[in-house]
Amino acid sequence: MSSHGDPIPMISRSSGPLTGAAHVPGDKSISHRSLILGALAVGETTVTGLLEGQDVLDTAAAMRAFGAEVGKRGDTWHIHGVGVGGFAEPEQVIDCGNSGTGVRLIMGAMATSPIAATFTGDASLNSRPMARVTDPLALFGARAYGRAGGRLPMTIMGTQDPLPVRYTTPVPSAQVKSAVLLAGLNAPGETVVIEREATRDHSERMLAGFGASITSEQSEEGRVITLKGQPELRPQAITVPRDPSSAAFPVCAALICEGSDVLVPNIGLNPTRAGLFFTLQEMGADLTFEDMREEGGEPVADLRARFSPDLAGIEVPPERAASMIDEYPVLSVVAAFAKGKTHMPGVKELRVKESDRIDAMASGLRAAGVAVDEGEDWWSVHGEGFGRVKGGVTAASHLDHRIAMSFLILGLATQEPMRVDDGGPIATSFPIFETLMNGLGAEISRES
Ligand code: S3P
Predict the structure, then answer these.
(1) pLDDT value of position 2
(2) Which residue stretches of the chain have pLDDT < 50?
(3) 339 C-alpha vs ligand 1 centroid, how far in Å?
(4) Rounded CA separation 138/230 (Å)
(5) How far apart are CA 118 and CA 110, in angstroms?
(6) Which of 303, 410, 418, 428 is the one with CA 20 to 30 A from 147?
(7) What's the half-sphere exposure (Cβ side, CA atoms, 13 Å) at 368?
(8) Closest ligand 1 atom number to CA of residue 349
(9) Which atom in ligand 1 lies closest to the alpha carbon of residue 28?
(10) Per-residue model confidence (pLDDT) at position 299
């Protein structure tokens, strides 16, 4: 919701050992897509393990506004879809809260129907660039009327006579790719998206699961994804896997808290999402993948993370950026406790997330006593080594859940407690963060 409540100041103190099992919530990306594709199928889709964070609840409300029935009985969400091209025109403004994924995917899904919808969000979302989505949607025939710089609030006039589109994404973005594919669902003929760098492929996998004809192949131009328009999507029974981006927090906390041994079960290791875990292993983390298996077509494992006092800074390969884009903030925290420099190039996209994540992390880390260098599309953290980070400051979360959680993880191993000015945004993606972390032995609390 855009009416974010009063700030919730939070504090974390030196903790450990962290022990036990951390059952993190469902995957945010897959949860949004389950609701949107369920709303576009004919008949009833069921979803278990849906992330009930505010971002996803806002997408559920949006799907109701476009005419789908969405509700929960017991542990299962039921979505009665209206079919591709069946969206009704919403009567009210669609409030996507803090969620870039929600708004961008929904814009794509409605842009090739003859309806209008006005979108808004919170201060963070209303400052983020939308032209990256409205530019390709214009090629289908949709029109966008927003604020200067392509910002929300914005009205999209969907088109009655969509044209199929061939589009090369100018930035590595699964949200842009997915918006184009969802728009392509109601266009005749074939819609083609080409991405030079592979981004998370949940939309492609799930569209195929819902019965769309979609292919993906590697060419000299990059990954070429071809979707046949106007399919009848078949409803599905979806079990949402647990979110690797949420798993990152207890995993990284275990690495930096003395004596820790934490199991994070059932985490998807889809190669388009798992870059952080390989990076941590390269830094010398005691992180293992146990019981590697396949579930619902995705590689899954239980992650086991133990205290790792001898981490070393590394060069993170830029071609890995898309597969760990949401994890750089918490990686920078681990890097602060490693010895030497961790250099993170090729990460310009971090500047247009829920906040400018390079700027937000660099400011708080510097205040906590860690040296950070940065350029437009890179940053380096100069690690102090275990036990040598001072802390003792209040970091600004900038309405960004991952910034708030990252600084609270930092404070679990700093000499003095770390505070964040507002932990409220954590509820967008990881509502049980505080309970889960404290259940492992962390000392994280709210300050009155
Ligand atoms: C997401 C894609 C990523 C990621 C976001 C979720 C998705 O954004 O940062 O948290 O579900 O498609 P971009 O595609 O803009 O990089």
Answers:
(1) 38
(2) 1-3
(3) 30
(4) 19
(5) 11
(6) 428
(7) 39
(8) 16
(9) 11
(10) 87
